[in-house]
Amino acid sequence: MILYFSGTGNSKYVAEQIAKITSDEIISINNKLKNNDTSDVLVDDRLIFVVPTYAWRIPRIVRDWIMKTNFKGSKNTWFVMTCGGEIGNAEKYNKQLCNKKGFIYMGSVGIVMPENYIAMFNSPKDDEIEEIFSQADKEIKNITEVFVRNKQFPTPCNSLQDKVMSGPVNMLFYPMFVKAKDFYADDKCINCGKCVKVCPLNNIEIKNNKPVWNNNCTHCMACISYCPTSAIEYGKKTVSKKRYTCNK
Ligand SMILES: Cc1cc2nc3c(=O)[nH]c(=O)nc-3n(C[C@H](O)[C@H](O)[C@H](O)COP(=O)(O)O)c2cc1C
Ligand code: SF4
Ligand code: SF4
User: Fold this and answer.
1) Are 212 and 191 in contact (CB under 8 A)?
2) Is the pLDDT of residue 49 over 90?
3) pTM score, two decimals?
4) Ligand 2 atom with the shortest distance to the CA of 198
């Protein structure tokens, strides 16, 4: 079984590519979160989480959903983390999560995909995106072999910097940066409701024909990136920036 969470489609793409080879069932954690669904999950052969990297760990919202959900069946668990560059020392925290849940930890791997965090950085240019996908497709094939053979991913050699990024920097990241108050929709908004639909946390409502953001946001970038008219901005940080969504 493959469970994925995805803001802008990269992790969904990777989950689907793996499933094409392994024929595993795919389940969307976005839908589970949207429906507040923490009902039991019955795992057949294996448990593969495919998620984006947020501040050098799996998204906190995914970790919390895993903690609240009861998994029955196979315990062998892998983490595939799509990222713009680095997953740091995510392994340590994924192992801890497995210990808490009684899963058998089989390893964590990062797959570099186009950067989507436009509230902080720029997404890559089109030709760079093509190159990133061609490299990622090769890696997806390699890791799929690991699942099929029921092997563990190799243990990464983490530097002090990796430990700092996944440790204290991750802890500071959420309270300091992950806020919805800077989102707004400008005059280009056509009141289509797509931002409301794609938000996995139901954090957006339409009031007086315009979206309004509440306080339950994980900065997944779905609303701002999928808006069909690029009407959404995040303070001044996203003005004139290219929006990225996976269109593969
Ligand atoms: C809130 C946030 C934090 C991120 N932190 C990291 C990070 O620590 N390291 C990294 O390499 N990429 C980071 N990224 C980039 C994403 O992990 C990457 O683009 C991912 O493939 C997006 O997946 P998705 O399209 O499935 O949401 C971050 C993106 C967001 C939105
Ligand atoms: S997705 Fe964009 S155009 Fe549609 S309601 Fe939201 S802000 Fe307006
Ligand atoms: S408000 Fe936007 S960035 Fe925040 S969780 Fe919802 S879709 Fe993601």
Assistant:
1) no
2) yes
3) 0.98
4) 1
> Which CATH architecture best describes the domain 179-234?
2-Layer Sandwich (3.30)
Ligand 1 center to 6 CA (angstroms)? 10
Per-residue pLDDT reduced to its tens digit, 163-188: 999 999 999 999 999 999 999 999 99
Q: How confident is the model at residue 156 (pLDDT cuts 50, 70, 90)?
A: confident
Q: What's the 73 CA to ligand 1 centre distance in angstroms?
A: 30
195 lines ligand 2 (CB under 6 A): yes
pLDDT of 174 reads 97
For residue 209, the model assigns a pLDDT of: 94
Assess whether the C-beta atom of 191 lies below 6 angstroms from ligand 2: yes
Q: Is 218 exposed, middle or buried (0-12, 13-18, 19+ CB in 10 A)?
A: buried
**Tens of pLDDT, residues 197-210:** 999 999 999 999 99
Ligand 3 neighbourhood includes 109 CB (under 6 angstroms): no
**CATH architecture for the domain at 2-174:** 3-Layer(aba) Sandwich (3.40)
The answer to whether the 2-174 and 179-234 domains have the same CATH topology is no
Q: What are the domain boundaries of the chain?
A: 2-174, 179-234
Residue with CA at minimum distance from ligand 3 atom 2: 223
pLDDT of residue 247 exceeding 90: yes
Q: Name the residue of 187, 191, 207, 208 whose CB sits within 8 Å of the most ligand 2 atoms, as the mutation to test its pocket.
A: 191
Mean pLDDT of 25-47: 97
The CA distance from 64 to 67, in Å, is: 5
